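Case study.
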Amino acid sequence: MSQNGDSIISVRGLKNAFGEQVVHEGLDLDVRKGEILGVVGGSGTGKSVLMRSIIGLQTPLAGDVTVFGQSMVGRDETEAKNIRRRWGVLFQGGALFSTLTVAENVQVPIREFYPRIDNQLLDEIATYKIAMSGLAPEAAMKYPSELSGGMKKRAGIARALALDPELLFLDEPTAGLDPIGAAAFDQLVKELQKNLDLTVFLITHDLDTLYAICDRVAVLADKKVIAVGTIPELLALDHEWIQEYFRGPRGRAAQATETAEVSA
Amino acid sequence: MSDIAQFEEVTEDGRQVLRFSGPLTLARLGRLPDRLKEVSGRGMLVDVGGVDRMDTVGAWLIHRLVHDNDAEVRGADESTSFLLQNVAAADKPAKIRPDRRPAFVQIMDQMGTATALAGKTMLGLLGFFGALLVTTWTVIKRPRRFRFNATVQRFEIVGIHALGIIGLMSFLIGIVIAQQGAVQLRQFGAEVFTINLIGRLTFRELGVLMTAIMVAGRSGSAFAAQLGSMKLAEEVDAMRTIGVSPMEALVLPRVMATVLMMPLLGFYSAIVAIIGGGLLCWVSLDIPPATFIQRIREVTPITDVWISLIKAPVFGLIIGISGCFQGMQVEGNNEEVGLRTTAAVVQAIFLVIVLDAFFAVFFSEVGWV
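After joint prediction, the assembly is written out as follows.
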């Protein structure tokens, strides 16, 4: 129970299915306050569906999802709103509003939840958030269709961070970024997490990100979370997929870089 | 510890000091930003030791205060100084709104853009028609490249699936023509001419015209939306790289479907409208169906049927080309798909009505009255 006390997200007995196809069955997961939890799994194991279930976009067939100690299943809109202002979500493709500029996109959550903030401050907030996420200042005035894939992602991050959330959901944040940008992003998340007490739920395929910033990693397979732990803990497990994932050629390369950095 | 961000202004050793307390976060700002605007004083000291929680918005406010007043920060712990450094690093002046222009210039700009766009659209439509003719010619030369299945599938969607709604619409139109005609003609004691009205109006004009409007709304819009979404998802580009011509695979089957289905649907529409009119004549004018059909055959010249059969494929061509052309013009974002879909329907209906006027004058002039 002591673990339950400081877990910010807790998923119990989750079941999700699309028609005949069962994605999750009896899935349990805890995300502790202040940690960066990486979620990995093969394609089609339902990583994004798990995230959607937690943030309330997907109603599960069975099971319970608790965020900030409050159940998310069957919650009405007004109550859910109070929870939503405490998190930020970055979707896989950025999911920017295509009819708004980048700056306006960043301002949307602030306008929605804090209508009393005046326009000047809003503009300033949007400008520094955009700069912080690594976009050039000129990008603020552009529309999503004028941005490259990586820039869209950064703009999405700026919007996810708009409310200075306590909890951040990132769906493959570094996919589509160049290695320099991806490393800078890892650094940004790590520092924000340290200084803002952020909890991060991070879906990724990027082994470098896993080694660099994740406190724990949850492995999704066989419709449930088969293991959660630090990477050394996972490596000690005798599971074929986990071993292949972390000990495969790419896993070894990422591990080597990490060890080299630590010893240097 | 208070629940909302606060600050107080004090003087320590003759130096102005702003002492912040409480949570300096976006959710708990309250009226702090407004109050901070009124504060000034060069070289002041900003004490953030009493702040229990700070986020980047709070850090930004402190940063701005310090920056504007050449002030000094005191009492910042590690994470606060990190935040302050971070927002300071992100403080790059940027323009996030375009400059406003005078209203007159804006109106002139809009007018010019609209005119240029109209011209460009007409030219583009003509070019598209040309490209379609070229494609048709290559397919005629090499019939194996003709997409039979795709075309038949379009026939089903454009033609067969429209039978229900076009039938219902035509039936009601037939009733309305008969009823209104009967009411007006009764004043002259010429109720029997209601039959002439129904027969000639439905075959010569309304059958095809109403069908064209319905097909433009049903299929023209669908073409634009489908092709537009495919362009956005880079499906059209993918096709080109694989070596499939989008004109052959996407446009030709659709345009053929509207061209070939329009005469059939138009004829069907006229027949159903006549049935509707006949029903009303039977019920309210006591003209039995046998007499009605006999009169229809006497008063409707065969040229009326030819006219509708000549107009229908032309209207179909316009609808198909407008829909596909607008769909292929989609670029950028999803809003464009909506705009182009609307444009396809408006353009198709407008051109159909303009051409219908030409046809009306033309056929009267050549003696098909």
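Observations recorded in class. Chain A has eleven helices and ten strands. Chain A touches chain B at residues 85, 98-99, 101, 103, 110, 113-114, 117-118, 121, 123-132, 137-138, 140-141, 143-145, 161, 163-164, 191, 194-196 (CB under 8 Å). We will return to this complex in the next lecture.
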